[in-house]
């Protein structure tokens, strides 16, 4: 292959690109990110002298290449590369806006099965945890077992729990719930009513700690510090609830689509 050497003139635009002069097609191959061009003294290289002389014999005049010719050949390539580099720079420094992942949004409505009557709950100002000053982990509350024994050597989590359990309505699809509602009421809770309670998704918590959730079918959410009476809006009695629970579990009866009926408003503090 015959090599061609092009000496850049004073007016030759470089534009941060090194122009490869070894192509047979008179087209310059661009090499991005080169910031320096080394000028070699050709007078001390006999091989280059021979190459230049042969080029002149074939009618080529490397020393007489006009800067305008180089510019006309290079400009389309440089423009294309310039556009691509500009896009890369914009992508690198103008990242699209995105939201950081946050804790799962608290449902608008939650439910709790409790043996206490409505007037008792209002009188005690809502659902209180077993230990208002407790400091156990959510997984300990769910399992009912402490990871480390307490000062008395016991491992029961319930006396130390600062959480109150609630769940989505789908928890009633759990067959165990049929026995759990015996002698109890189902309470409807609106977490946003007071904005004072602090709810946590049990499912998301187990994902975070990398452990398997023991009762995923219960759709559990826990409220840290309790649930004020202002968030407890309505209730169903045991009789009302059992009459509406699906008797067949496989397949499930789509009872949730119809919603539960017969909800009664919670009594006010004046009527308790």
From TrEMBL:
InterPro entries: Pierisin-like_dom. Residues 110-235 form the Pierisin-like domain. Gene3D superfamilies: Heat-Labile Enterotoxin, subunit A. This is Heat-labile enterotoxin alpha chain. It comes from the Bacteria.
